[in-house]
Design a protein that fits this description.
Two copies of one chain form a homodimer. Chain A is an alpha+beta fold. Chain A has three domains: 87 residues, Rossmann fold, CATH 3.40.50.20; 55 residues, Dna Ligase, domain 1 (2-Layer Sandwich), CATH 3.30.1490; 197 residues, 2-Layer Sandwich (D-amino Acid Aminotransferase, Chain A, domain 1). Chain A contains eleven helices and 21 strands. In chain A, β1, α1 and β2 form a beta-alpha-beta unit. In chain A, α4 crosses α5. Chain A is globular, with a radius of gyration of 20 Å. Chains A and B meet through α1 and β18 of A and α1 and β18 of B.
C-alpha cells in the first residue's frame, strides 16, 4: 500500500480521510492539535507544526506522496521532499505562487487572466496615498485565512483598518454573481472539471450564504468562466485539485478572485451530489488512478454550519434533531468540541431535482439550526 | 459528545466509521487485529477479544452506547452492560436468538413466520437417520459464518459432510429468487424499510453473484416479502438495523432464510444509491436521531470483490486502474493487506437509471478485476 501524508488535520482532512477508506492506502497526518477533526481517522497521526521545516521534512521523507488541506505550510520542506522524489501534490511552486496574494495577482496578470485591477502597498502610508483608487479591498499578502486579513477601504476614514505590511489593494468590483469552479488535474496532466457553483446571497428573502449547483448563469458567461478557470489551472503545470473563485459583473465580465490549490468549501456538495467527490478525486490523483466522473447526480445546495455570534465553548447543535428529519439533506458535523463565533462547525448538502425544494430546505436549515455553547 | 463502541473491526466497522465522521460522536472499537480494516478509523482502538466476557465488559462499561458488526460476541457481557444502563443496540436478547441457528428457526416458527421446514440433529447418527428428509441443508447451530458451517446433504453419501453437534437440518427449498430486505428500527420503535434487493446468479450469461436494487419481483411477492420481513423484525422488540434474507419459490411462496441484526453485505449499495445509507442509519439509531430516508436516488448493482482461488499473500488488484475509469462505479477496497481464496476484499456499487447499463458494467468489473497475490 502507498503511504500518503496530509499536512493539516481540519475538516478538509477529515473528509479526505473518509474518502481514503475506499482505497488501499496508508494515511499519515501532520497536525498540531491532537483533537483536530481529522486526527483520529488516519493510520498514523504525527503531532507537529505544518509551518516548521523539520516537522514537515521528517513527516514526509518516507512517504510516497504528500498533499495539503491548507496553504499555510512550510514550502521549503516540500521543495526538499520533492527533490528527493516524494510526490508533492500540488507542486510546491504552486503553493509559493498562491499563498502570497501579491504573487498570486502577478500570476494572473502574467498569464492574461482577467482579475480586478490592483496595486501593492507596503505600509499604511502607501495605502493612504492611494485614495484615488478607493473604494478598494485591502488584502494582506501572507497569512490571511477564512475572512481574516481582508478589509474593505471605502474612503480615507477606513485607511486605519488597512494592513501595515505587504498587501494587495484591489479595486472594488461591482459583483453581480459569485461563482466557483473546481478542476482536477491528474499526474499525467489529464483534466476533469466540475460544474460551476454559485454563492447565493439573497437579502430580500433573508437567505444568506449558501451555494447552488449548477450555477444559475448564462451559457455565454459559463463558457467564459470555464475558459478562464482552465487557463488559471493549466498554467500551474501541477497535478492536484483547484478551486477557482470568480466574479461575474453586471456587464457579464468574468474575473478571477482567488484560487485554492486544494479541496475547498465550494466543493463540499460533490460528496453526495456528484459521482466522484472532490475528496475521492484527490485520492485518484495521489494514487495515480484515472480521474473520476465530475457530473452531478442531482442539483444541490450546500450551506455551512457556523458558530453563532455570542457563543464560545462546548458546542451544542440546537434544532439539529428536528432538521435531521428533512429528506435528502446530508449533515456533516466536523466533531469540533468547541464553538466560537463564525467557526465552521459543519455543512449540509441538500440534493433534489427541484430548485424550489432545494431553496426551501436550505432556508429551513439556515433558520432552524444554531450552534451555541452549553453555558 | 456521546461515546459509542463497536464490537469488531472488519469492513462493516470500517464503513460504519466512515459514516460516523458526519456526526459529533466519539468512537471506540474492540478488535483482536490491530491492522483490521476499521482499526485506524476510530478515536480509541482497544485490542481485545470480542468473545471474551471481561474484554467486552471493560470495553463497554464507560460507553453511552454499543453496537456490533458481527454476531459472534460475548452476549453475557452485553447483558451485564445493558443492566447497568449502557444502550446495547441491538438488544442482547436478539443476538441470543439469532446467533444460534436452532433458536433462530424456533423464533420464526413461534411467530408464524414462513421458513423452510426443519428439524434438529445433535450428532452425525441423528443426521443419518433422517434420510427421508433429504435433500436438505445441514447448518451448524453456532459458529458458522460467511458460508462456513453449511453443507448440502443430497443423499446418504453426503452424511459424513454433516456436523457432529447441534445443527439445523432444513428441507432444501426450490428457490426461484433470493432477495433481502434491510429494516431500521429506532430507539422509540419507529421503522424505516429499504427497498428489497435481489441476489442475481445468471449462469447463462456467466453473470454471477451480484445484487440488484430494486429487486425484480412481482408486486404481490413484494408485499408478501415486506410483511414477512416486518413481522420478523418487529417481534425482536429491539432498535437496530436488520437484514432479512428471503427465498421466493417458483410458486410465489416467500420464506425467511436468515436474519442478521446488523449492517450487512446486502446493504452496501445504500452508501451511494440511497439517501441514507445503512451505515448512516446506524448512527441515527445509536445517537437517537430521526431515521433517514431509505429511498433510492437511482437503481443500483453491487458486487463483492473476492480473493481469487489459488492466491494467498499480499493483495494486488489486477485490472483495477482500467476499471476505475468506468463512470458511475464506486469502488470500496477494505485495505486488507492479505488476500486468500474467497476473502471479501472490497465491493463495487454501480448506479444508473438503465438496468442494461448496470448489468453491462457489473459484468465488465466481474471479469476485469482479479485479486491475486504478489508472489
Amino acid at each position: 500500500m502507498q503511504k500518503v501524508g496530509i499536512l493539516g488535520g481540519g475538516q478538509l482532512g477529515r473528509m479526505l480521510l473518509q474518502a481514503a477508506a475506499n482505497y488501499p492506502v496508508e494515511t499519515y497526518v501532520l497536525e498540531n492539535d491532537a483533537h483536530a477533526p481529522a486526527a483520529h481517522l488516519c493510520h498514523h497521526f504525527i503531532q507537529g507544526d505544518i509551518r516548521d521545516y523539520d516537522a514537515v521534512y521528517n513527516f514526509g521523507k518516507d512517504l510516497d506522496a504528500i498533499t495539503i488541506e491548507i496553504e499555510n505550510v512550510n514550502v521549503d520542506a516540500l521543495e526538499a521532499l520533492e527533490k528527493e522524489g516524494v510526490k508533492v501534490i500540488p507542486h510546491p511552486s504552486v503553493l509559493r505562487t498562491i499563498r502570497n496574494k501579491a504573487s498570486q495577482k502577478k500570476y494572473y496578470t502574467d498569464h492574461q487572466i482577467p482579475t480586478a485591477s490592483y496595486l501593492l502597498t507596503h505600509n499604511i502610508q502607501e495605502l493612504a496615498e492611494q485614495r484615488a483608487f478607493f473604494p478598494a479591498v485591502h488584502k494582506i499578502a501572507e497569512g490571511g485565512y477564512d475572512g481574516r486579513g481582508v478589509q474593505i477601504i471605502n474612503d480615507e476614514a477606513d485607511v486605519p483598518k488597512g494592513f501595515d505590511t505587504l498587501s494587495v489593494l484591489e479595486k472594488l468590483v461591482d459583483v453581480e454573481k459569485e461563482i466557483a469552479m473546481m478542476i482536477a488535474v491528474g499526474q499525467s496532466g489529464e483534466i476533469a472539471i466540475y460544474p460551476a457553483v454559485q454563492m447565493v446571497f439573497d437579502k430580500t428573502l433573508n437567505l444568506l450564504d449558501f451555494q447552488l449547483c449548477p450555477a444559475d448563469i448564462e451559457e455565454k458567461t459559463y463558457w467564459k468562466a470555464e475558459a478562464i478557470a482552465l487557463t488559471t489551472v493549466k498554467n500551474f503545470n501541477s497535478p492536484g485539485i483547484f478551486a477557482v473563485e470568480l466574479f461575474v459583473t453586471p456587464g457579464g465580465e468574468v474575473l478571477v478572485n482567488e484560487t485554492a490549490p486544494r479541496v475547498h468549501n465550494s466543493g463540499h456538495h460533490t460528496i453526495e451530489a456528484h459521482y466522484s467527490s472532490q475528496f475521492d478525486m484527490v485520492w485518484r490523483i495521489l494514487l495515480n488512478y484515472p480521474l473520476g466522473n465530475t457530473e452531478a447526480v442531482l442539483p444541490s445546495v450546500m450551506l455551512n454550519i457556523i458558530g453563532k455570534e455570542g457563543y464560545s465553548g462546548d458546542a451544542v447543535y440546537e434544532g439539529l434533531e428536528e432538521l435531521l428529519k428533512i429528506e435528502n439533506a446530508f449533515f456533516h458535523l466536523y466533531g469540533k468540541r468547541q464553538t466560537k463565533p463564525g467557526r465552521k462547525m459543519g455543512h449540509v448538502t441538500i440534493i433534489s431535482k427541484e430548485k424550489t425544494d432545494l431553496l426551501h430546505k436550505a432556508n429551513k436549515i439556515k433558520h432552524g439550526l444554531s450552534v451555541i455553547s452549553r453555558n
